[in-house]
């Protein structure tokens, strides 16, 4: 639970300036001085009083965590306040204006179904059941629905954002990606932005923009392929250039700030790549073992030094150092933390300051909370319950 700090109002009162001056109001000049002094005292009282009142008000810049229910009857976002110690307090839920897929554990089989913009001003969610994408304005842990648009295909499962561009990954039919411009949080479909994947029934599961926004990458877990698109100045994409995955079942793609592409593989490994000028991929680190099972999700810390994987089959987290040129090496014994048995932790996210990691524990209907140290070590801080267990949860985001 988030802790509330009491305000010492005596201290606030004692901090106010005391003016000990005797004023002779018989003099016209001193009469004016009296008015000025009284006015100054009034201003001080108002300003300090306002400061005292603000001490008990939540700062909209405080952290928050969001989880998507993906419910088939009414998709919602559950919001939590994040305290300075990483603990969470549920504050409410917000309807997306669409419907999810429903299901039990990991029905979307994707990473990025719920996504915060880079500046944390907007939150985007897929509605796999209704084939739409929702956009919210974010103010602390409060959300305001701005727009709901067709995903440009059917069964959207993942999103990627860079600046004013948002792309959705659709797996219905033959599957495709489709783009939007973000106009003050509202979505505007980009004409002629739909692009095919490498084929049909690809099992696509994630997409990500490169830091320079020159490329968009899609992982295909069924075909063991990775699609690379070049992003044009008008927001549309080139055709895909397809490269083979280093390891089997490439699931979750993330770019490090240094441009290295890091992909978690459900075959219980992680690989890194460099995107070449011709849109092909050069392997940097091939299939480093995670020592966990069902390594399907990953998150990179804001400073770009570490990547952590969420291993659903063993309810564990593995950690890796990201070198200057994108090479990966394990942190310690590789497995850096564990959730309670049966958690089946799916999606994973990190706070904007890099101090806390959160996992969506779909098996138990909880959020796993971990602190992350500067040396890459991770410490479990427990869990927050209250979500429905094995009920289709997908997607977690934090700042």
3D architecture notes:
- Strands 8, 9, 10, 11 and 12 form a 5-stranded antiparallel beta sheet that branches.
- Mean pLDDT is 88; it is low at 1-58.
- The chain has 399 residues and is mainly beta.
- 8% of the residues lie in helices and 46% in strands.
- The longest helix has 27 residues, at 28-54.
Helices and strands, with pairings:
Blueprint: H1 9-14, H2 28-54, E1 63-68, E2 76-82, E3 88-95, E4 114-116, E5 122-127, E6 132-139, E7 142-150, E8 156-162, E9 165-170, E10 176-183, E11 186-189, E12 195-196, E13 204-209, E14 215-220, E15 225-230, E16 241-244, E17 250-255, E18 261-265, E19 269-275, E20 281-289, E21 295-300, E22 306-311, E23 316-322, E24 328-338, E25 345-350, E26 356-361, E27 366-372, E28 378-384, E29 396-398
Antiparallel strand pairs: 1-2, 1-29, 2-3, 4-5, 5-6, 6-7, 8-9, 9-10, 10-11, 10-12, 13-14, 14-15, 15-16, 17-18, 18-19, 19-20, 21-22, 22-23, 23-24, 25-26, 26-27, 27-28
Overview features:
single chain, 399 residues, mainly beta, Methylamine Dehydrogenase, Chain H, 5-stranded antiparallel sheet, 4-stranded antiparallel sheet, 2 helices, 8% helix, 46% strand, globular, disordered N terminus
* Integer-rounded radius of gyration: 25 Å
At the fold tier of CATH, the topology name of the largest domain is Methylamine Dehydrogenase, Chain H
Counting DSSP E segments of at least 2 residues, the number of strands comes to: 29
Helix coverage percent: under 10%
Distance between the termini: 17 Å
The CATH H-level homologous superfamily of the largest domain = YVTN repeat-like/Quinoprotein amine dehydrogenase
């Amino acid at each position: 639970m988030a802790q509330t700090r009491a305000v010492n109002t005596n201290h606030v009162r004692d901090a106010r300036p005391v003016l000990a001056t005797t004023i002779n109001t018989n003099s016209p000049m001193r009469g004016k001085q009296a008015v000025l002094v009284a006015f100054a005292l009034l201003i001080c009282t108002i300003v300090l009083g306002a400061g005292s009142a603000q001490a008990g008000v939540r700062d909209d810049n405080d952290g928050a965590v969001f989880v998507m229910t993906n419910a088939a009857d009414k998709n919602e976002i559950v919001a939590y306040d994040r305290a300075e110690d990483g603990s969470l307090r549920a504050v409410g839920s917000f309807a997306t204006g669409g419907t999810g897929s429903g299901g039990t554990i990991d029905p979307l089989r994707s990473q990025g179904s719920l996504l915060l913009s880079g500046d944390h001003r907007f939150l985007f969610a897929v509605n796999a059941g209704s084939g739409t994408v929702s956009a919210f304005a974010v103010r602390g842990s409060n959300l305001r629905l701005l727009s709901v648009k067709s995903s440009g295909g059917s069964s959207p499962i993942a999103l990627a954002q860079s600046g004013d561009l948002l792309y959705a990954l659709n797996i219905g039919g033959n599957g495709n990606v489709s783009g939007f411009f973000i106009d003050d949080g509202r979505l505007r479909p980009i004409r002629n932005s739909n692009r095919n994947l490498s084929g049909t029934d690809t099992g696509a599961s994630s997409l990500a923009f490169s830091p320079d926004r020159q490329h968009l990458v899609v992982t295909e877990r069924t075909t063991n392929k990775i699609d690379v698109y070049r992003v044009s100045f008008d927001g549309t994409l080139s055709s895909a250039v397809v490269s083979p995955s280093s390891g089997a079942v490439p699931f979750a793609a993330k770019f490090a700030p240094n441009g290295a592409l890091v992909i978690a593989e459900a075959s219980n490994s992680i690989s890194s790549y460099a995107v070449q000028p011709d849109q092909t991929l050069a392997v940097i680190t091939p299939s480093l073992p995670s020592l966990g099972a069902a390594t399907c999700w990953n998150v990179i810390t804001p400073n770009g030094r570490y990547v952590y994987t969420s291993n659903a089959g063993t309810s564990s987290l593995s950690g890796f150092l990201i070198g200057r040129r994108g090479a990966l090496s394990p942190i310690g014994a590789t497995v850096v933390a564990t959730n309670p048995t049966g958690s089946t932790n799916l999606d994973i996210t990190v706070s904007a300051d890099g101090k806390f990691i959160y996992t969506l524990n779909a098996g138990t209907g909880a959020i796993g909370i971990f602190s992350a140290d500067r040396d890459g070590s991770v410490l479990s801080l427990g869990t927050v319950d209250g979500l429905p267990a094995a009920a289709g949860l997908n997607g977690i985001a934090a700042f």
